[in-house]
Design a protein that fits this description.
The complex is a heterodimer. Chain A has one domain. In chain A, 76% of the residues lie in helices and 5% in strands. Chain A contains three helices and two strands. Chain A has a two-stranded antiparallel sheet with strand order 1-2. In chain A, helix 1 runs antiparallel to helix 3. Chain A starts with a helix and ends in a 9-residue tail after the last helix. The relative contact order of chain A is 0.15. Chain B contains 22 helices and eight strands. Chain B is mostly helical. Chain B folds into two domains: 490 residues, Sodium/glucose cotransporter, CATH 1.20.1730; 78 residues, no CATH class. Helix content of chain B is 69%, strand content 4%. The relative contact order of chain B is 0.17. The chains are: A mainly alpha, B mainly alpha. The interface between A and B is large, with 44 and 50 residues.
Chain lengths: 87, 583
């Protein structure tokens, strides 16, 4: 693999791991492991842990995918591996 | 107009729409039949993926399950949406770059092995069949309750519609009907939810409404009110769970990895023109899905409050029409334990065994006779969870057109998923089995014919499963996820991210992961169901969550075997390099 492609792949993996750690944190940590602890706090009319497990985690999932798309499209351009617009 | 007449009109109109789209978008080539020619706009693919994904289970059952389980229902909410993050980041863009037709295609080419391809074909067919049978039950419920036709006739009508557009249109026909079905189903889901949210909380957005204060009781939040009501009646508080943390963790993980590994979802990402489109269309798909999934828990909380308020203490002789109609359908049962003529709704099961077994005749207050023994609890009411979404508009007293709309939405959800599954099965047979394994010399025309015949055959078998539902279907559907998590997800993931990953490791990993998961489920569900409880489970993991452990075993075995066997040939390593970059 040439250096450029290797750097592209590394940047891709770094982005992916960052986003996946957020994914893990909001669902498995806030929504499951720490749900009882968080439930002692209120978030409007919800218990906080309950909100994360039934609402918050889903909103974060959506945001994560859009961040990924935006950053990857930029990476593609930066490393010159983006697809042509007409194909 | 009566609800029944309106239901006929709504369902008739929606079916006419689906058929019209099918005629407009029929397929002429295998490429169109398998992946809609690869020309689907990412936004359309997002909507189609959402409809493909959201089945009768999401539309009809999920809010009902959450209504009764409260906090534990979060495993479905997070599991069935979180999987899209995995799909978008780990699988979809790379599989699009690979640019073939099916999941077995990827497994077969990446692992340069016909055996691996065949294992994948068998998994695809098994997963899809267990899944499609559940859709047919959904179609049957809607038809029998709302149109008062025989369940079997309902299934036949549903199958005829799917037959028409799946066999004729292939992926192209399915894609555009799914877009229409998404619009129908999301409209049908949101309208009653908004109505009920306004009635209970004054907030038009259900996702915010269930965290708001109750109308007429300022200072009382809806969820606190519900927690109070449930506690008062001796039930688990709505925002507290019954399941252990470890089980919740494993089930949620299995549903996520399973979602990302489900063949009928993955194949949707082969239909867009570019890698970039695959990424963004996963994002659109999750937005469309999240719209329903963030509404579902609100619907669940509203329904639970409405049921408690309307049913507990109700005199059976003056029961509303919806109550007796669902009782006639066999999905509500009442056993008058204290013989006071009033329905008493409490914690625990009402009947022993849990599911009602009706006998001919009526009891003192006019309720249907049961052969079940009364249970030890004070609860007198059995409500099937699957009816909540359908019954809720009636319980809340919404206008007839809303009730009819929900029926059309339920059918859209069931039919769109059924069509996607049938297509994946037919593609696996005509492309992976016939063209790639058994008869490599067939022409494109013959392959297309095989695809159509296989689709027709799959529709018929699915219809039979709907008419004669084998007792085990309901038990097995959730396990389609466990099996997908333990087989496809690791094998595809490692195939993309570990270049050294080879044939021997993939086969060893799939076989151990599948065998472990399959035997665990079969043991607790079929061989020894009486021991199916936390004290006997391995590490406290239920059969529903065991796919996660199966997946970990698959990963471990794969990585170990990979180290002691030769690396894959150069052309496969080049393939991996190629799919990692968009250009």
């Amino acid at each position: 693999m040439d250096n450029d492609k290797q750097a592209y792949w590394k940047a891709n993996l770094a982005l992916m791991l960052t986003l996946l750690s957020v994914w893990f944190f909001v669902s498995f940590v806030c929504g499951i492991l720490a749900v009882d602890y968080l439930n002692q706090f209120r978030f409007f009319g919800y218990k906080l842990g309950f909100w994360f497990s039934q609402q918050g985690s889903i909103y974060v999932f959506v945001i994560l995918i859009f961040i990924y798309v935006w950053r990857m499209n930029r990476l593609d351009k930066q490393y010159g591996v983006h697809e042509d617009d007409d194909t | 107009m009566s609800a029944q007449l309106l239901t006929y009109i709504f369902i008739g109109l929606s079916f006419a729409l689906y058929i019209g789209i099918a005629i407009w978008s029929r397929s002429g080539t295998t490429n169109e039949f398998y992946v809609a020619g690869g020309h689907v706009h990412p936004l359309a693919n997002g909507a189609a993926t959402a409809a493909d994904w959201m089945s009768a289970a999401s539309f009809l059952s999920m809010a009902g399950i959450i209504a009764f389980e409260g906090a534990d229902g979060a495993r479905y909410l997070m599991g069935w949406t979180g999987g899209y993050v995995l799909l978008a980041l780990l699988l979809a863009p790379y599989l699009r770059k690979f640019a073939k037709y099916t999941v077995p295609d990827f497994v077969g080419d990446r692992y340069y092995s016909q055996a691996a391809r065949l294992v994948a074909v068998v998994c695809v067919i098994f997963i899809s069949f267990t899944y499609v049978a559940g859709q047919m039950r959904g179609v049957g419920i809607v038809f029998s309750r709302f149109l008062e036709v025989d369940i079997n006739l309902g299934v036949v009508i549903g199958m005829a519609i799917v037959f028409f557009y799946a066999v004729l249109g292939g992926m192209k026909g399915i894609t555009y009907t799914q877009v229409a079905q998404y619009c129908v189903l999301i409209f049908a889901y949101l309208v009653p939810a908004i109505f009920i949210s306004l009635m209970l909380t004054g907030n038009p957005l259900p996702m915010l409404g269930f965290g708001s204060e109750m109308v007429g009781e300022s200072g009382t939040y809806l969820l606190d009110k519900l927690d109070g009501l449930t506690a008062e009646l001796g039930m688990t508080a709505f925002t507290e769970g019954n399941k252990s943390t470890v089980d919740m963790f494993f089930i949620t993980a299995a549903l996520m990895a399973g979602t990302a590994g489900l063949p009928h979802v993955i194949v949707r990402f082969f239909t867009v023109p570019k890698v970039r489109d695959a990424r963004i269309s996963a994002g659109y798909a999750l937005v469309f899905i999240a719209l329903l999934y963030t509404t579902a828990p609100a619907v669940a909380a509203f329904a639970r409050i409405n049921i408690i308020n309307n049913v507990d203490g109700m005199q059976y002789s003056v029961a509303p029409e919806w109550f007796t109609k669902w009782e006639d359908s066999g999905l509500i049962a009442w056993i008058d334990k204290n013989a006071d003529g009033k329905v008493q709704y409490r914690g625990g099961n009402a009947l022993n065994p849990v599911k009602p077994a009706f006998e001919d005749g009526r009891e003192a207050s006019g309720q249907r006779s049961l052969s079940n023994a009364p249970s030890d609890s004070e609860n007198e009411l059995y409500i099937d969870r699957d009816i909540i979404v359908l019954a809720h508009p009636e319980i809340a007293g919404l206008p007839n057109w809303v009730i009819a709309l929900v029926a059309a939405g339920g059918l859209a959800a069931a039919l769109s998923t059924a069509a996607g599954l049938l297509l994946v099965m037919s593609t696996s047979i005509s492309h992976d089995l016939m063209k790639k394994c058994l008869m490599p010399n067939i022409s494109e025309r013959q392959e297309l014919l095989f695809a159509r015949v296989a689709a027709a055959l799959a529709v018929s078998i699915a219809g039979l499963l709907g008419i004669y539902p084998p007792g085990f279907v309901a038990q097995v559907v959730a396990f389609a996820f466990g099996l997908a998590a333990a087989s496809f997800f690791p094998v595809i993931l490692l195939g993309i991210f570990v270049k050294r990953m080879n044939r021997e490791a993939a086969i060893a990993g799939m076989v151990t992961g599948l065998t472990f998961t399959f035997s665990y489920i079969v043991y607790f569900k079929f061989i020894s169901p009486e021991t199916n409880n936390a004290t006997h489970w391995l590490f406290g993991i239920s059969p529903e969550g065991i796919g996660t452990l199966g997946m970990l075993i698959n990963f471990a075995v794969s990585l170990f075997v990979m180290r002691i066997t030769p690396p894959p040939p150069q052309h496969v390593q080049d393939l991996v390099e190629r799919i990692r970059v968009p250009r």
